[in-house]
Amino acid sequence: MYEYNTQGTCSTKIRFDIRDNKVYGLSFTDGCDGNLSGLSLLAEGMEAAELIKRLKGVRCGSKKTSCPDQLARALEKAVKAQS
Asked: Is the pTM of this model over 0.70?
């Protein structure tokens, strides 16, 4: 299980597993429960590289990041650690 402490978002932590380059068990601590629960369901079993491609750079309002962007950053770090 990977854990990533977010920066600049309402959520404070992201947890997930990567098996066969796919994301499983994604969960967020704090943040917008409905949106993040939905994101977690959509990401289940999806290729980590595809999630990174789709979510990296997404912004929340005037913030320079968002929960989806933080997920992309967490996935990049986890994928790199597996290499």
From this structure: yes
